[in-house]
Design brief:
This protein is mainly beta. It is built from one helix and nine strands, in the order E-E-E-E-E-E-E-E-H-E. The strands form two sheets. It has a five-stranded mixed sheet, with no helix packed on it. Strands 1-3-7-5 form a four-stranded antiparallel sheet, with no helix packed on it. The protein starts with 23 loop residues before the first strand and ends with a strand.
Length: 129
């Protein structure tokens, strides 16, 4: 869904997004990294009133590594996400953070995704220059 790739506008907000879709964001909303390689950290920020499980995917597994791939974010909290760009050709890619609300007692962040319980996703544009 491409509407998640749109940057935030102080005037327009996030076009066509419901409050639930705006409840999980990545800070910053877009990232530039050197094509020669670098490691950066962003935050996955949750405004949910419940615990969230997340799974991170990338459009370019040859050039990017992320840590953690799966994880939890507690109620209205955030989680650091380390993104490593390996040396490669300059290009534009994206990270997709899929999410699902889970019970507070859930201990396996992979479980909701194995069960097909994904509820949404947020896209982080990556630009290697």
């Amino acid at each position: 869904d491409l509407r998640f790739a749109l940057p935030f506008s102080p005037v327009l907000g996030y076009p066509n997004l419901t409050p639930k879709e705006m409840s999980l964001n990545i800070d910053p909303a877009e990232v530039s990294v050197p094509a020669a390689g670098a490691t950066i950290t962003v935050k996955i920020v949750s405004a949910f009133e419940s615990k969230i499980a997340f799974k991170v995917k990338t459009s370019n597994n040859e050039c990017y590594r992320v840590k953690p791939v799966f994880g939890f974010i507690e109620v209205k909290a955030d989680s650091p996400l380390e993104i490593m760009r390996l040396p490669g050709q300059p290009k534009e890619d994206k990270l997709v953070v899929q999410w699902a609300e889970v019970p507070a007692e859930e201990t396996d962040p992979k479980a909701p995704f194995a069960a097909g319980a994904q509820q949404g996703e947020v896209i982080l544009p990556l630009k290697a220059t």
